[in-house]
Structure formats: C-alpha cells, structure tokens
Amino acid sequence: MLGIWCKRHEIVALIVSYGCYTLQVEGAYLEDGKSLSNWDVFCHSVGCGENGENGDIADDHYHHFLEDIEMMHSLGLKVYRFSISWARILPRGRFGEVNPAGIMFYNKIIDNLILKGIEPFVTLYHGDFPHELEERYGSWLNAEMKDDFVHMAEICFKSFGDRVKYWITINEPNLVTQYAYGTGIFPPSRCSEPFGNCLAGNSDVEPLIAMHNMLLAHGVAAKLYRRKFQSKQGGSIGLALHCDMFEPLTESELDRNAAKRAFAFNIGWSLDPLIFGEYPEEMQEYLGSALPSFSVDEKNLVKNSIDFIGINHYTTTYTKDCTNSSCSPTADRAIQGFLDTTGERSGVPIGELTGLEGLYVVPRGMEEIVNCIKIRYNNKPMIITENGYSSPVMQEERIDELVNDVKRIEFHTAYLASLARSIRGGADVRGYFVWSLMDSYEWLQGYNLRFGLHYVDRQKLTRIPKLSARWYKSFLTNSSYVIGKEALRHERSFQDDTMLEKADA
After folding, report:
1. Which of these, 318, 494, 306, 444, lies nearest to 385 by C-alpha position?
2. Which segments of 288-390 does DSSP mark as H helices, in order?
3. 450: which strand partners?
4. Is 367 marked active-site?
5. pLDDT tens, 396-413?
6. N or C: which end of the chain has fewer CB within 10 A?
C-alpha cells in the first residue's frame, strides 16, 4: 500500500507505501517450509475468481521483493505496509516449530526496506492462517485460537520488533467474520439461510462468536506487547477496520437512526470494545443474549487496547430502516441491525461505479467517516490504512487502457482533498495509505480486479508503472506531471486545502 504520512494540521508529501497482503502478492505457497493456509485450501478446492484462480504464484513477491522495494524507493515512498504469513513462520501453529526460513524472509524484507529509508508497517493477521488450526479446533469459533494468535504475535514482536514500530494485530475483523461466518463466501464457508447455502453454520450467531474471539486475541496480544516490548522497542499497536460510510436513504428519522445503527453494527462492533470495553448499546438492544459478553477481566483486557485506529475506507452507501418497513430476508434480521444498504436512491447511483460491485466513488465519505470516528472515539489517533480505486473489469485486456488510469488519479486526489478537510477540522489523522502498490490477487475476484499503481503482466510478472504511479511520484516530490482535467481540478482543490492548513498550523 502506498500513502502519505500526516502531521496534525497538514498533509505533506511525507511518503508511505503499502505494497501487499501476504496471499495477494507473495506466492511461493509451499516454498521453504510454508504450510497450506486456510485460503490455499479454499481456493484449491472451490476456485477463486471467475477462472478458478488462486494465490499460489500471485505477484511472486517472495522472489521479487528486492525489485519491488526498489520500485517503492523510486516512487519516493517512506512507509510500506505488509502482512506476515502465519503459515510461513509457524506452519503448524503452536503445535509445531518456528520455520527459520520464514523468519529469514521477513527479516530480509524489513532490513532492505530500512536500507532504502522505508519504514515497515506490519499486519499480523490478514485473513490467512495455517489450515491445521481449522482442522484441529475450528479456528476463530474456538477460544483456543486466541492462544495460537498470541503465540504467533510474540514470535513476531521478538523477531522483528527492534525494527518495526507500527503493528496492526488484525485487519478487518468485521469483514472476515461477515464473509466467513455470515454469508460463507470466505473460508471456512459457514453460513445458514437466508444468507447462504452452506454445509454447516449459523449466520445469526457464529459471526458474533468469531468476532468475540478475535477481540480477545487482540487484547491479549496488545497486553503482551505493552508489557514486554513496547517500552524497549518504542512502537505502537492498533487494529484496522473496514469502514464504509453510511448515509440515510431518506431524511426520515427512521433512516437516520438506521445509518447510526449501521455504524454501530459494522464499525462500533469492533471499536467500542477496544476503546470503551463494551459492545455498542445498539447491538446489545437488538441482539440480547445472542451477543457474547465480556467478563470483568476481559473488559479490562480489551478496553483502551489500541494506540491508533486503522481505517480501511473505499465507499459510501445509503441505509434504509427495516424495523418499520419491508426489507429483504437478509436485511430483516437482528444480526444485520434490521437495516438494508443500497448504492442507489430513486435509481440514481450514489457515485460513479468502480470495478467491484458495491464500491462507488463518493469522496465526501472520507471526510464523513473520519469525522464520525473522531467524535465517537474522542479523536483517538487515526491512520487511513487503505483507500483505493478498482478499475472496471475489461473483457479483453488492453494494456494501454489499463496503464492510462486517469480515473484512479481522480479518485485519489478527490479523496485526499476530502481527508484534508477533516484534518483541517481537527481530526488527528497520522497517515494515509493507497491500496495498492501493484495489481494483485484480489481474493474471490482473482486477477481481473485491479487496484494497483503498477500493472503486473500475468505471464512475465513484470511490473509496469501506470499513469497513477507517475502522478503519485510527482505528488510526493511536489513536481509537475500532466494529468486529466478532472484529476487536475481535484489536485488544485487538494493543494488549496493544504495551503490553508499550513497557514493555520
């Protein structure tokens, strides 16, 4: 992932990069002692992407990491966010030995990043873990998973913490639980009607159990880091959430309350316990005894267990109340907060469509979601850990069109301008990451969905800079580059906001 590091009242081209999540770019899926992950098994059995693709090779970052780091350096990036493959450093979890080849690989990445003046920003868990943990005890549906996660976290703190100053424990637990245990489209594919037709599962209960175990795992890992490592290593620890912005479909009080409820059921579900020690009141009201509860000790464990909030923001959606009107069977459920979401109002899309269904270009949403989080969580330090644009899928791959990605430039300049407004309003945003450095393996969408600033030739695995990569480099270095008229308009708007912020600082 790429990005910009921010000071309190200004956005300056101070760099960042985020290149990849393990499964999406790394490849070498069984090389040098790595075991099968849950996603390896899933994609090999059911196929991922329209062509039954998998992440066996991905972008082969495992063998091209030096080239990729040089690519980051050439852009002027100063921070690189990546994830650790749990199955590469602990092929059997806590039931086996540490894999020295896995530790060596990440040491080489970290050391070479630092050599190029790029700060490593590490995510411990991004959806993939040793498949054996699923087979042994059901992974996140079992409290044992907490012990495995903390074991892995401690090995990473010991092995890399002398050079890594930014840690994210878990990436998007709200999305993982929804897709893995609600709709069943992610491994382990557990769900029930009306959300999906899986072999096993309970969509009304299991997402709540999985999230509860993830939050406790985070809490124990954060406590361990603060007790044994933080004072000596000088780092910070947080968690990253999938954060759509929810706007009411109409101006009715019911829809306005539904939008607030959507925030609680999607974002507050994870963040409220980590800051206040309790699940949101809205969830307690609608879910009752189905919602797990924290003991006194657990409440003290998770409360105030993050140093910063990671915000993965891509889009904004309309929200409709279902308590007083008819909705689809999946929306009219307590686990959903009795609300529905839609990207259209009276047939008009909320924003321009992108390559991924449900993601619309709505720049104002960045300012709105940051302000909502600022208010609810007392302006806890925030980092925009993901923000990106997926090009519309092409039936026939035309490289000239893929690399001439003016729409991506327009997207980022508009979203940065929106972010600048929230910072000017006092939001304590410390950084911004672009998703992503290069086109990668996009989970169920395979390789057809492209978020990258660099095009990757699937046959030769060569990295080709898109127009957006050249624009981003010029943006970071404050040099000129010819871009589209619409992108230029947003760029000027962003620059005007930045000048005002500097004048106020």
Report:
1. 306
2. 296-302, 364-376
3. 391
4. no
5. 667 888 899 999 999 999
6. C
